[in-house]
Design a protein that fits this description.
Radius of gyration: 23 Å
CATH superfamily of the largest domain: P-loop containing nucleotide triphosphate hydrolases
CATH topology of the largest domain: Rossmann fold
Distance between the termini: 25 Å
Strand order of the largest sheet: 7-8-9-4-10-11
Helix content: 25-40%
Order of helices and strands: EEEEHEEHEHHHEHEHEEHEHEEHEH
CATH architecture of the largest domain: 3-Layer(aba) Sandwich
Structural class: alpha/beta
Largest sheet: 6 strands, mixed
CATH class of the largest domain: Alpha Beta
Number of strands: 15
Number of domains: 2
């Protein structure tokens, strides 16, 4: 059964799929299972899910690197399956691997990418210079790509991917393996691209990344779309506005039962390592309420934390497992 998703008229969408399915040879499961997808012009659209959820396979089919088993896919008016060469002209791709040309300098990686896409020499030179400045790489222009840190290499790959002004930019786990400072720097650049109207499909398992960058977000697991909406709407779907994590000695199931029965407006409880997680509607005096109930039930509290719902809470609610599993 295909899962229909989308937030607009199919005619206005820049990415459209219908029943898109991939079964790899020898596999007894569908890596992507009947995906119906619609992404609007100018959206930063996220696919959020754990490793093996089908994110990379979905992007692979949309970028012509993976041949679908069945279904259809379009970028703009171009049938990606029937006309892969034409589709490649409309997209930019940043994969998980470093695909920079090691024989070229930083500047040459940009310049020759433009020439490859039929952009004239003068325009390619100007755009290479401009992108190096925009991505804060100007002083590295004449350097070997071996001189770049992981974060700088990722910035260069994004700059190269947008050099020919693609209709859609595909980013597959763009900040995986980066240190926190490099991740924040790349988020700033991607945020600027999104605000400038660049359509982006972002594949990630980082909740904060999806929450910060995406206008629309689809949660994916086992090749299927489980939920779609803005990050804020997905978190509201939990029916709770506060997450309380209680760490205590003793039986987690008994603690969960005591808190569920003794604390008002608890919508969900989940036993976690060393304690219990509560989803609560309303945060007024939640800490003393939880402490009183736990201690009255004979539990010695070790720690207590209060936070707003996250996309991981949404994923757990949908699948019963943590996103990192």
């Amino acid at each position: 059964m295909a899962v229909a998703i989308g937030n607009g008229d199919q005619a206005s969408a820049i990415i459209r799929t219908l029943g898109l399915t991939k079964i790899y040879p020898g596999a007894d499961f569908k890596a992507v299972d009947g995906l119906d997808l619609s992404v609007e012009h100018g959206e930063v659209f996220g696919l959020l899910g754990p490793n093996g959820a089908g994110k990379t396979t979905t992007a692979g089919m949309l970028t012509t690197r993976v041949v679908p088993t069945s279904g259809s896919a379009y970028v703009g008016a171009v049938d990606v399956i029937a006309h892969p060469a034409l589709a490649k002209q409309m997209i930019g791709v940043v994969s998980q691997q470093n695909t920079l040309d090691r024989q070229l300098t930083v500047w040459e990686n940009l310049y020759f990418h433009g020439r490859l896409f039929g952009i004239g020499a003068a325009d390619s030179r100007l755009r290479a210079d401009a992108l190096l400045e925009q991505f804060q790489l100007s002083k590295w222009g004449k350097a070997s790509v071996f001189a770049l840190s992981g974060g700088m290499a990722q910035r260069l790959m994004v700059a190269r991917a947008i050099f020919h002004r693609p209709a859609v930019l595909f980013l597959d786990e763009p900040t995986a393996g980066l240190d926190p400072q490099s991740r924040l720097a790349l988020w700033e650049i991607l945020g600027e691209l999104g605000r400038a109207g660049q359509t982006i499909m972002l594949l990630t398992h980082y909740m904060e990344e999806a929450d910060r960058l995406c206008n629309q977000l689809a949660i994916l697991d086992h090749g299927k779309i489980l939920a779609l909406g803005t990050p804020a709407a997905l978190k509201r779907s939990l029916g709770a506005d506060t997450i309380v994590t209680v760490k205590a000695s003793g039986d987690g199931e008994l603690l969960a039962a005591a808190l569920r029965n003794g604390v008002d407006r608890v919508t969900r409880t989940r036993v976690v390592d060393g304690g219990v997680e509560l989803s609560v509607k309303g945060a007024e005096r939640i800490v003393p309420r939880v402490v009183d109930v736990a201690e009255a039930a004979g539990f010695e509290l070790v720690d207590l934390a209060v936070a707003e719902p996250t996309l991981e809470n949404v994923f757990i609610n949908l699948t019963g497992k943590e996103l990192r599993e």
